[in-house]
Amino acid sequence: MEQNAGLARLVNLIDYYFSLGGMQMQFNVVSRDTLLRAQADPAKYQNLIVRVAGYSAYFVNLEKKVQQDIIERTEERI
To answer: What residue spans of 1-78 are helical by DSSP H?
Structure first.
């Protein structure tokens, strides 16, 4: 796959969302592996901040259920 093809698809997705009246979009730019490591060893990831439903939070301070939800929707293939 061409290196910029994924970026082009992401830009198209964002443009399309806003053309339909979307008001905001939030991104976490962190790998699933990093989140899993943070969940397993919170002491090493005290400064990891993620976006959660309109606010920022320290990942390791979130309830496990919220952490798991973030992990499950982290990697979207475009």
So the answer is: 5-19, 32-40, 64-72
